[in-house]
Specification:
CATH topology: Rossmann fold
Strand content: 15-25%
Structural class: alpha/beta
Shape: globular
Number of strands: 6
Strand order of the largest sheet: 1-3-2-4-5-6
Number of helices: 5
Order of helices and strands: EEHEHEHEHEH
CATH architecture: 3-Layer(aba) Sandwich
Distance between the termini: 30 Å
Radius of gyration: 14 Å
CATH superfamily: Response regulator
Number of domains: 1
Length: 156
């Protein structure tokens, strides 16, 4: 697991969870997050199984604080072991986790992958080849869904 914290004068930070097995793709995401200039904390995992264990542990703490869960999940579609679709299904059928928006990232252009991904509520599909403005707009939409913009984690 990698933890990246971007320091900010803001008191509240967007909590991000990234599930990505390719270190290069993770670094590209980090560069984009820094360019956007919003305050965030990020936990990342290389396998879906690790992420699910982490999320279930956080969900068990849900009664203590909403801040224990991520505001947004980035999920690679093609992962070793259980693939991203299986992990997405586990997230979206869990009573506590299902409300967290998920951005599914993939190099796949298969229409079936897109359709299966988008059947789950609060889920976005992001091609890994997407340009920076596309990623920024998806983040804005996702943050708006979570209501996290209230804590000023994302600038205008």
């Amino acid at each position: 697991m990698f933890i990246l914290k971007i320091m900010s004068e803001q008191t509240s930070k967007l909590q991000l969870l990234v599930v990505e097995d390719n270190r290069c793709d993770l670094e590209i995401l980090e560069v984009h997050f820094k360019k956007m200039g919003f305050a965030y904390e990020m936990a990342s995992f290389r396998t879906g199984e690790e992420a699910v264990q982490y999320l279930h542990g956080r969900a068990a703490l849900e009664g203590l604080s909403r801040r224990t869960l991520p505001d947004l999940i980035f999920l690679d579609l093609k992962l070793p072991g259980e693939d991203g679709l299986e992990i997405l299904r586990k997230i979206k059928t869990h009573p506590t986790l299902k409300t967290i928006p998920v951005i599914v990232m993939t190099a796949s252009t298969n229409p079936e992958d897109i359709a299966e991904t988008c059947q789950w509520g609060r889920t976005f599909f992001l091609p890994k080849s997407a340009e920076f403005p596309v990623l920024r707009e998806m983040l804005r939409q996702s943050v708006a869904i979570t209501g996290a913009e209230k804590n000023e984690g994302m600038p205008n």
